[in-house]
Design goal:
This protein is an all-alpha fold. Helices cover about 75% and strands about 0% of the residues.
Length: about 35
């Protein structure tokens, strides 16, 4: 599972970078809402 996770994030490095900040903002917003 770890071996497959490495090659996947490589091509998805660009979309992952955008998804990372988005997920963090969504989490922070949920925490602030609480």
């Amino acid at each position: 599972m770890k071996s497959t996770s490495k090659p996947k994030p490589k091509p998805s490095s660009k979309p992952e970078s955008k998804d990372k900040p988005t997920v963090g903002a969504a989490k922070a917003g949920h925490n602030s809402d609480r």
